């Protein structure tokens, strides 16, 4: 996914970030952050105004967004503001924007749509960042948006040469494991290359243009089938449709794979995996990946669930444990994985030569990262999906 940047993208970021090489932020970054600080408290108003400007100025763009603009509502604006905030940091910015650019292909985004969005952004900021706004600030934002949009456009154009904008995928099985959790297996209409531990975006036929992220629950398979573990969450458009409505024969759409919570096969470090609820799905994929590579590195899984019935995939995991002597799976049942986890991990180990993988609700990921750092695993050896992406997982 995060292929090396094109030379034109590299040039652009190099230009905007020259001053950022030092520890001091560049003058543009200072102005941009001042604007962001000013609009922070009125973010909701900025968001409504921004979308109203986009849709009234360019009604043809409305059809690219879902009918109900709840979660989707502030995604685009938030992504642009996040990118602007990191304008000095090409290491973060480039992979982020390239993913955003390729991910936007499934919405039907074209290069000619970007100026309309840029104009709305500048107008919304002019209105709501009155105190910090002026010609210099405006010029900094125009430069930032020009670079941001060009990187996204370039990434989409490059991706177009090698991948479809989306895949159709037919549901081939639907297994209701608990009243709220289903395991779905789908067959994509074209080969779908991905790595174990990654996730995709998924749209159901019942709620057009409402996309949610789901991790693959298996490593890539010979037969090309993909599987997902889905929990229906209250008011979740996509999750309820997938759990309660989807049946074999229904056709979903999938976006491109994303995520960097993948196995580094260049080491034989042990792997410490923490999973909460349906967060076990990508961990199961990682286990299959290690097994498929014929490796014998220790893999230790702590699988947290609120109750025994939420350990819906325990039998599969215990089956894997029986076949693989290097694998150990420990269910941790209770309300506070956060409270129990440090103790559970502390009873085992030492973990200093392990890489860590965390998957589950955002709160669990946050407290899991803290717990792992406390037992001495450095941040760069802890992998998890981006929390802002997970905000769109549930639902
Ligand atoms: N790649 C990933 O990271 C994936 C993440 N998910 C996310 O996993 C979640 C699964 O939901 P459920 O099965 O309902 O999980 P859940 O709410 O039942 O929680 C699962 C476990 O996490 C613990 N936990 C929950 N919140 C916590 C917090 N704030 N601090 C510490 N521990 C906490 C619970 O005690 C329980 O042991 C969803 O939010 C889904 O979006 C699902 C699949 C993949």
Strand and helix order = HHHHHHHEEEEEHEEHEHEHEHEH
> Which residues sit in consecutive blocks of at least 5 with pLDDT less than 50?
1-22
Q: What does the average pLDDT come to?
A: 88
Q: Provide the list of bound ligands, each named once.
A: 1,4-dihydronicotinamide adenine dinucleotide
Number of domains: 3
- Alpha-beta content class: alpha/beta
Distance between the termini: 24 Å
Number of strands: 11
Structure description:
It is an enzyme of class 1 (oxidoreductase). Its cofactor is FAD; heme b. This protein has three domains: 7-160, Globin-like; 167-254, Elongation Factor Tu (Ef-tu), domain 3; 270-390, Nucleotide-binding domain of ferredoxin-NADP reductase (FNR) module (Rossmann fold). A hairpin with a 7-residue loop joins strand 3 and strand 4 (211-215). The chain is built from 13 helices and eleven strands. The longest helix has 26 residues, at 135-160. It has helices spanning 7-17, 27-39, 43-57, 75-85, 90-103, 114-128, 135-160, 237-245, 280-292, 314-323, 337-346, 362-374, 387-390, and strands at 167-176, 181-188, 199-203, 211-215, 226-231, 251-254, 270-276, 299-305, 327-333, 354-359, 382-383. 42% of the residues lie in helices and 17% in strands. 42% of the residues are buried. Strands 4-3-6-1-2-5 form a six-stranded antiparallel β-sheet. The protein has a five-stranded parallel β-sheet with strand order 9-8-7-10-11, sandwiched between helices. The chain is of the alpha/beta class. The chain binds 1,4-dihydronicotinamide adenine dinucleotide (NAI). 1,4-dihydronicotinamide adenine dinucleotide (NAI) is lined by residues 199, 215, 231, 276-279, 281-282, 304-306, 310, 335-338, 359-361, 363-364, 367, 385, 390, 393-394.
């Amino acid at each position: 996914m995060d292929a090396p940047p094109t030379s034109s993208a590299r040039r652009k970021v190099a230009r905007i970030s020259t001053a950022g090489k030092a520890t001091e932020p560049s003058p543009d970054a200072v102005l941009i952050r001042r604007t962001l600080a000013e609009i922070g408290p009125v973010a909701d108003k900025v968001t409504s105004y921004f979308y109203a400007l986009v849709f009234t100025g360019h009604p043809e763009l409305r059809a690219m967004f879902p009918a109900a603009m709840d979660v989707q509502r502030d995604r685009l604006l938030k992504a642009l503001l996040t990118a602007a905030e990191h304008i000095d940091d090409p290491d973060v910015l480039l992979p982020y924007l390239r993913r955003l650019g390729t991910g936007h292909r499934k919405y039907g985004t074209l290069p000619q749509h970007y100026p309309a969005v840029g104009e709305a952004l500048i107008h919304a900021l002019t209105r709501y960042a009155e105190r910090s706004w002026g010609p210099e600030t405006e010029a900094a934002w125009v430069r930032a948006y020009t670079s941001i949009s060009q990187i996204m456009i370039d990434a989409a154009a490059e991706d177009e040469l090698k991948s479809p904008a989306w895949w159709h995928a037919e549901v081939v099985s639907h297994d209701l494991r608990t009243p709220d959790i289903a395991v779905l297996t789908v067959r994509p209409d074209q080969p779908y290359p991905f790595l174990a531990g990654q996730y995709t975006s998924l749209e159901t036929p019942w709620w057009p243009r409402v996309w949610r992220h789901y991790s693959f629950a298996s490593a890539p398979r010979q037969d090309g089938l993909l599987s997902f573990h889905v929990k229906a969450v209250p008011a979740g458009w996509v999750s309820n449709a997938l759990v309660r409505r989807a049946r074999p024969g229904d056709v979903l759409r999938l976006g491109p794979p994303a995520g960097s919570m993948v196995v580094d096969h260049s080491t034989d470090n042990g792997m410490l995996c923490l999973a909460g609820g349906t967060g076990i799905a990508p961990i199961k994929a990682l286990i299959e990946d290690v097994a498929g590579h014929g490796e014998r590195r220790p893999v230790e899984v702590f699988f947290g669930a609120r109750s025994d019935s939420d350990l819906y995939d325990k039998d599969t995991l215990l089956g894997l444990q029986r076949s693989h002597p290097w694998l150990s799976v420990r269910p941790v049942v209770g309300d506070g994985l956060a409270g129990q986890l440090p103790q559970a991990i502390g009873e085992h180990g030492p973990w200093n030569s392990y890489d860590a993988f965390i998957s589950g609700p955002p709160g669990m990921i946050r407290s899991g990262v803290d717990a792992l750092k406390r037992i001495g695993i450095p941040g760069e050896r802890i992998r998890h999906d981006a929390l802002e992406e997970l905000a769109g997982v549930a639902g």
